[in-house]
Structures are given as structure tokens and as C-alpha cells.
Design goal:
Layout lengths: L1 H28 L7 H18 L1 H16 L1 H10 L6 H18 L8 H18 L1 H6 L10 H9 L1 E2 L2 E2 L10 H28 L9 H20 L5 H24 L6 H12 L18 H4 L5 H4 L27 H5 L1
Antiparallel strand pairs: 1-2
Helix pairs in contact: 1-2, 1-6, 2-11, 4-5, 6-11, 9-10, 9-11
């Protein structure tokens, strides 16, 4: 099983090693010290930028999935209320079938919100294995990984940030500097995760979507994820913690942009967007005006007024079969139609 796991992860380790090495070479070419921990730390930041840029399509799917989950939350609540208190297998099966049918008819996939996390997991483990193997590669007890040769691994292994090596962990560390840097990074990771989750719930969810299973799940994650980071972070190398923190910052900034520019219908962020548009003298979608209902479909949220599409221009010419009910009275010009004389 271990050999299979290693064979699966090795291509990912190889890609991670080449991206890090490429950024390291680029930074040294502009004058940064090759053996500096900051140079290797910036190489990890470059790895984050490349990976997250490639994951932007998955992030778009995640946003759409979350938006659709918010939209269908009232229907989900109806299904749950319908089978509330019914624990027999037949009722539970029907509830599941109706829920899946709602997902299918609305084009919603609740698992799409997990795609970016799942896609990042192999990169995360690949970086972990590269950093964890630096010492063994430097000692010659492990084969090189792509461009990470014995000399390069020795250089990266000795690189330090605030007196802590990138491959050091809190567990088993003899240096106080390593423990301090690790704790600071774990705190930063927890704060950025909490902030990202909280701005999603407080600014980009309509009031009607705050009381449903999906929202309750988000509330649980709001407190569970930082706790998970605090517990698990002591087992990861400092280089992995840097990767984790930077990718959290990317997520927070990316989500802030989406919430500000494309907020969920009926949310506080949408109201703020409309206020900014009014202050600039720009048009506000009809669904945002006082007394109107916001947030029934996504197209309404971006300002395509549906009522306009329902109004059809009535024809002014009289048809062959006579006047339409409610049309204007015939004028002398209308009697010039040769088909009228035939009748």
C-alpha cells in the first residue's frame, strides 16, 4: 500500500519541486541570496500563486454551487418540514429522493463547494513530502526529486526564517525560534480561515438562507477549522505552514472580490453594492428597489430585469380575421384592405 501511495504522489512531488526550484532560480537571478530562507519562502509563495491560478475555474464552480444552495434553501426547508419527525425507512428514503430530485432539477451539486479543497490536497501533501525529504536527500539516503539534488536540498534544508528552518516542525523542535515561528503561523492560519468563513456568512448570505442545514454547517466550520489547524499544525513543517497561510490569504482576498462585485441576492453585500451604484449615479436593477423581492434567480442578481421580457409590443395592424378584442377602432385607412371588401 505504501509503494502505491508513493508512486501516486511522486509525479505531484516532481511538479512541486520544479515549480519551487523555478521560482527560487528567478529570485536569485534578481539578486536575492540563494541560501536565504526568505528566498525559499518566496518560492513557496510562487507555488501558491501558480496552483491557485490554475484552480480559478473550480473556484467559480464553488461560488455557483454555494449560490444555488442558498437559492434552493427554502425548498429544502419545505422538504425537511414535510418529513419532520418521521423516522421510518420509507419516509427517510422519500425525503432523500425528493432532495436529490431538487438538486437535479435546479442543477445544484452540493459537493462542488469542496472541489478547490480536494484539488489542493495532492499539492499540499506533495509539498509536505518534498520538505520532509530535504534532509534525507541532502544526506544521500533518498533519491533526488526532479531538480532538488543533494546540493540543492542541503541549501534548502539550512535556509532559515527568523532562525527557524523551513523543514522544522513544532513537534520535536529544540529551537525556541522554531516554536515561536510555528505558533505565529498557526495563529495567522486560524485567523485568516475564520475571517474568510465569517465574511461569507455575515455579508454574502440572505437572511432567508441563514436558518437551514447548509448555513448551520457553515457555522460549525467557522469554529471547527481554526481548531483543526491549531491541532494539526504542530505536525507540519514551517514551509507547509507558509503555504497554508498564503493560500488562506489568497482565498480571503478572492472571496472578498467576489462578494463585493457579485454578491448573493438579498445579502448585505448586495445592498452595499446597490448603495455604491446609487452614489455613483449608476442604474440599480429593479429587483433592488424598495418593496421588490430580490434573489429568486441568479440572472436577476446581476441586473437583468425580467419584467421587461414579459412585455410584448402589440401589433397595430388588423389581422385577417377581424379586429382583436380590445384593439383600437377601425379607421377609414384600415378599410382599404382588399380582403375586407370580399367579406
Amino acid at each position: 500500500m505504501g509503494d502505491f501511495f508513493n508512486s501516486v504522489l511522486y509525479p505531484i512531488e516532481w511538479v512541486v519541486a520544479w515549480i519551487m526550484y523555478g521560482f527560487h532560480q528567478a529570485f536569485t537571478a534578481i539578486g536575492l541570496p540563494a541560501a536565504s530562507g526568505w528566498t525559499w519562502g518566496l518560492a513557496i509563495v510562487g507555488l501558491v500563486i501558480v496552483m491557485r491560478a490554475l484552480l480559478i475555474p473550480l473556484f467559480v464552480k464553488q461560488i455557483n454551487a454555494s449560490r444555488k444552495m442558498q437559492m434552493i434553501s427554502p425548498e429544502l426547508q419545505k422538504i425537511q418540514a414535510k418529513y419532520k419527525g418521521k423516522t421510518d425507512p420509507e419516509s427517510r428514503q422519500k425525503m432523500t429522493q425528493e432532495t436529490m430530485e431538487l438538486y437535479r432539477s435546479s442543477g445544484t451539486n452540493p459537493f462542488s463547494s469542496c472541489l478547490p479543497i480536494l484539488a489542493q490536497s495532492p499539492i499540499f501533501f506533495g509539498l509536505f513530502r518534498v520538505l520532509n525529504g530535504l534532509q534525507h536527500i541532502a544526506e544521500g539516503s533518498k533519491d533526488p526529486i526532479g531538480p532538488i539534488t543533494k546540493a540543492v536540498a542541503s541549501q534548502a534544508e539550512q535556509a532559515q526564517i527568523f532562525g527557524a528552518q523551513l523543514s522544522d516542525k513544532f513537534i520535536g523542535a529544540d529551537s525556541l525560534s522554531t516554536k515561536i515561528v510555528t505558533v505565529v503561523l498557526i495563529i495567522l492560519m486560524s485567523v485568516t480561515t475564520f475571517t474568510t468563513q465569517r465574511q461569507l456568512m455575515t455579508k454574502n448570505m440572505p437572511a432567508s438562507a441563514l436558518d437551514n442545514p447548509f448555513a448551520r454547517q457553515q457555522k460549525v466550520l467557522l469554529y471547527v477549522l481554526p481548531l483543526f489547524f491549531a491541532i494539526s499544525g504542530v505536525n507540519f513543517p514551517i514551509g507547509v505552514l507558509i503555504y497554508w497561510f498564503v493560500t488562506n490569504v489568497w482565498s480571503m482576498a478572492q472571496q472578498f472580490y467576489v462578494i463585493r462585485r457579485m454578491p448573493a441576492p438579498g445579502s448585505l453585500a448586495e445592498k452595499a453594492l446597490h448603495e455604491r451604484r446609487r452614489a455613483k449615479g449608476l442604474d440599480v436593477p429593479p429587483t433592488a428597489l424598495p418593496g421588490t423581492v430580490t434573489g429568486t434567480v441568479i440572472s436577476d442578481a446581476v441586473g437583468s430585469p425580467r419584467p421587461q421580457s414579459r412585455q410584448r409590443q402589440q401589433p397595430k395592424r388588423k389581422g385577417r380575421g377581424g379586429q382583436r378584442p380590445g384593439s383600437r377602432p377601425a379607421t377609414p385607412q384600415d378599410d382599404t384592405d382588399p380582403t375586407d371588401s370580399a367579406s
